[in-house]
Give the backbone structure.
Amino acid sequence: MVSTFLHFIQIFILALIGFGLYKSYIKGDFKDKEIKEFAIVFFIFALYQLFLSAMLFTDNLRIAAWSYNIAIFLFFIMLAYAWRIPLSLSGINTKKIRLFPGILLAVGLTVVVIQIYDFRLPVIHSSGLIFWNANPITAWITRLAGFLVGMTWVYVFSKKFLKHLGKTEKIKNVLIIITSFMFGVTSLMYFHNNYFLTLAAFCAKYIGLLSISILLLIPKHK
């Protein structure tokens, strides 16, 4: 299946990006501790993609539906962890930094419980794309949560885009802003049962992955 194969490819890309960012942090290429946390987000994202790739290993739609529910909870774990980074950079109170991601995790758990209660099987489009056929309410909550976190990153890193920043830092900020924007947009598009929106989500997601991959090519700043 086309979408399953695309998810499977993303597992390796995301894992490589996560490993590359973490390795760059260890070597001192990027001094911000947020880069290390950013790497962890990519590792969780790779695990999320693994569960979305269930149809590559089985044609059992019930197993795929359960795998999707696990993936969605991982998605919210990733969002909760990712949200900590811009909140921390904004200088928000530590207690609030713990509170907001906690609320997001509670929302994610609620979403999964509703999806299990209203259990639905995915639908395979003739093109090979998978429509997960999630409960409409939980699908919208998932979309908005991903969009909110992505746009939070865009806002914070745009705000950090100061005139005194060096060229390397400016490039790094731009790439993170592009990736965050693409993540927010794809979150809005992917969970629809619509062929063109799903295909567009994959295209936008790969643009985001390409942007953040360039981060690994940036030489160590002085």
